Amino acid sequence: MEAVTAAWERYAAGRTPRRTHNAAGATTWLNWTQYADHGPDESVIGEIHGRRVLELGCGTGCNLAHLSTLGAQCVGIDIAPTQREKAAARWGHLPGLSFRTAEATEFLAAHPDSFDVVLSIFGPVWFIDPTTLLPLVRQSLTAGGAFVFSHKPPRPDPQPGEPLREARAVSRWDHSPCKWAALLESARFANITTEIIDPPHGEREGTLVVRAEAREERIGRPARQS
Ligand SMILES: C[S@@+](CC[C@H](N)C(=O)[O-])C[C@H]1O[C@@H](n2cnc3c(N)ncnc32)[C@H](O)[C@@H]1O
């Protein structure tokens, strides 16, 4: 785990802060994609006001800050301590918003049934084995709660003659929309939707956005025997 934390600390050190205003002049906004001023807004999530929202791998907290301005009670966690410091310095004045340094699986395991919405925007859902992570996300959500995440769609295998991919410091679960739907179904999610958002003009890679809801489960009583 120390090597993973160190890799994400290096990542944090190389990032430039998000702009103070977007193209529309807003000071907070939610961005699901890897491109500025592109893609759907927070309406993908569903209801926000009054909801308890957890973001896994919130980085500098800019997406979560936006949800906080819309009336959500927000907790952002990130494995890299520097990210929490930057998030708190920029957004710590907003009400109903807090940031913690925590590893996603450890945090989820300690907070069952606590959130109405769990988000991961290019976050840990991409970097943790889903057979470990999805049951923990499901357990942390209230029945009917929304789980929404985004990451790059899987790339086709390299063609003969194409350069091999670079080695990565952290593993990545580049699943297709169908594979995510199957994994979510078996982890007790329902109403699963997947969409690949087209890239902006001149770019090649789109963005996969997945939404699912924690299945409401009836615990049936055993039938009475006569
Ligand atoms: C690609 S960045 C995305 C940050 C942010 N969501 C955004 O859209 O700008 C991934 C973030 O996930 C965090 N992260 C990666 N693995 C994690 C884990 N296992 N637990 C918690 N945070 C993690 C990293 O430190 C990093 O800040």
TrEMBL record:
Pfam families: Methyltransf_11. One of its GO terms (biological process) is methylation. The keyword Translocase does not apply. Keywords: Methyltransferase, Transferase. The keyword Transferase applies. Residues 54-149 form the Methyltransferase type domain. This is Methyltransferase type 11.
